[in-house]
Specification:
Number of helices: 1
CATH architecture of the largest domain: Sandwich
Helix content: 10-25%
Strand content: 35-45%
Largest sheet: 6 strands, mixed
Bound molecules: dinuclear copper ion
Shape: elongated
Radius of gyration: 23 Å
CATH topology of the largest domain: Immunoglobulin-like
CATH superfamily of the largest domain: Cupredoxins -  blue copper proteins
Number of strands: 11
């Protein structure tokens, strides 16, 4: 009687133990396949620069919005306590915007929730993110890494104007 009970418990446990190995192994395989097979990586660090010379380092020596081609823009953005520069960007609806950003001082974040831009801005690292703005309106830019006493005030916006 005691043996049968022990066996029942063992099978019940096995039903939990096997998935608890199979699921992480499956996730690891998916991670390896997508990272090395499909080449999918998180948006983020593109290259390193000297964090003490951000203003002299390209492309941050010419900050702001640059039109690359019709409907294609690039923003060279720096974060510093407690503002983004540029703090406000205007583009026509339907634009694709490349954000190149870094921090001049401490760790900041660059979050544009409506278009799924979400990167950390680390001193000495250049972050890159791409977003397409199809719908006219205001898109808040938010610092989502705690960066000091006025962190909650650190915000900007993308203004998307109706195409004429
Ligand atoms: Cu910058 Cu929080």
């Amino acid at each position: 009687m005691a043996t049968r009970k022990a066996t029942t418990v063992y099978l019940y446990e096995l039903a939990w133990i096997l998935p608890s190995f199979a699921i992480p192994v499956g996730m690891l395989v998916a991670l390896v396949v997508t990272a090395f097979g499909a080449g999918i990586h998180l948006p983020g660090q593109e290259r390193r620069i000297d964090p003490t010379k951000v203003a002299e380092t390209a492309p941050f020596d010419t900050p702001g919005l640059v039109e690359l081609a019709p409907g294609q823009y690039e923003v060279r953005m720096t974060a510093q306590i407690w503002a983004f520069a540029p703090n406000e960007i205007r583009v026509p609806a339907g634009s694709t915007v490349h954000f190149w950003a870094t921090s001049k001082d401490v760790v900041h974040g660059l979050l544009i929730p409506k278009v799924h831009v979400n990167v950390m801005l680390l001193p000495g690292q250049v972050a890159h993110a791409v977003a397409r703005f199809d719908t006219p309106g205001e898109y808040p830019i938010i610092c989502h890494e705690y960066c000091g006493i006025a962190h909650h005030t650190m915000a900007g916006k993308v203004i998307v104007e109706a195409a004429r």
